[in-house]
Structure formats: C-alpha cells, structure tokens
Write a structure and sequence with these properties.
Blueprint: H1 9-13, H2 27-41, H3 67-81, H4 89-99, H5 110-130, H6 137-149
Length: about 160
C-alpha cells in the first residue's frame, strides 16, 4: 500500500504548501508532520478515510536518507502501542519482519506503510483539534513545535 494522504490533511496544509519560498515543498511534508504527531500519541486511526489516489509510493528525495529513521520510529512506537516486551528478541523480530522490507522503496512492508498512514490520520485529527489553520509556514512551525514542547500532542498513557 502506498502512502495515502488522510482526508482533511490537504485542506489543512493547503495554504502553507507549494513550490515557493516560505512554503512546504511537498504534500508529503504535511503527511510527515501528521504522522509524527500520531507517533507521539502512540495511537492509530484504524477507521481513517484517505484520499482515493496515492500520495506517493516512495519517499520524496528529501526524505530518502531518513527512511531508516522513519522505520525505527515506527517500530519503536508500535512496540509501545501493541505492546511488545522490548527484552523479548523474538517478539521484536516478529514485529520488525511484519513492518520492514529491505527490498521495498520505502523500506516498509505494505502493512508498515498502512500503519504509517494510520498514524498520519491520527496525527491530522489531533492537529485539527489542537492547532488553528495557518496561512504562514513560520507561524505553523512555531505553533507546531510549541505543541510538542508543551506536551499538547502527547496523550497521557494509562
């Protein structure tokens, strides 16, 4: 499954995305910022609605060097969400083989890509709830990083 933009993501990021200075370069940037929030929540949206067409089936060039880091963030978060005992090597290996594929362009299996999509869907829901829509990228980033710093994006784990 390729990366798919969650519904509402394009609308939220529309004013701060475009091929000009002071804007996000790719729609994938909004996707990325959303799944980081979903990962911080350690929650997925398993009933998410996505745009009908795929966003991309591989990382944009600016993200390719980060594919291993993205995969590691996914594994770490999934280990917490499921949960998987981090001292159990067999359980961690099973999780990794479920999510990783060293031969794919994204370094993820279809299930891994789907899981990132679900984290992105959760993330955009939280962004919509916690942040106003911005028309300037610098203001968005200031608000976005303050939400991380202040713990607004982190849901209490019970």
């Amino acid at each position: 499954m390729p990366f798919r933009l969650p519904k509402n993501c394009r609308e939220y990021f529309r004013d701060i995305t475009g091929k000009v200075d002071g804007k996000l370069n790719y729609w994938f940037d909004g996707y990325y910022l959303s799944f980081l929030v979903g990962l911080a929540q350690t929650k997925i949206d398993s009933n998410a609605e996505f745009e009908s067409s795929e966003l991309v089936d591989e990382y944009p060039i600016d993200y390719r060097k980060s594919s291993d880091y993205i995969a590691a963030l996914l594994i770490s978060t999934e280990a917490k969400r499921i949960p998987v005992d981090e001292t159990n090597a067999d359980a961690l290996e099973r999780l990794m083989t479920t999510l990783l594929d060293s031969h794919s362009r994204t370094r993820l299996t279809a299930e891994g890509e789907n899981r990132l999509n679900q984290y992105a869907a959760r993330g955009i829901s939280v962004i919509l709830e916690k942040m106003p829509k911005h028309t300037r990228l610098d203001e968005f980033y200031q608000d976005y990083f303050e939400c991380f710093k202040d713990g607004v994006f982190i849901e209490n784990q019970e």
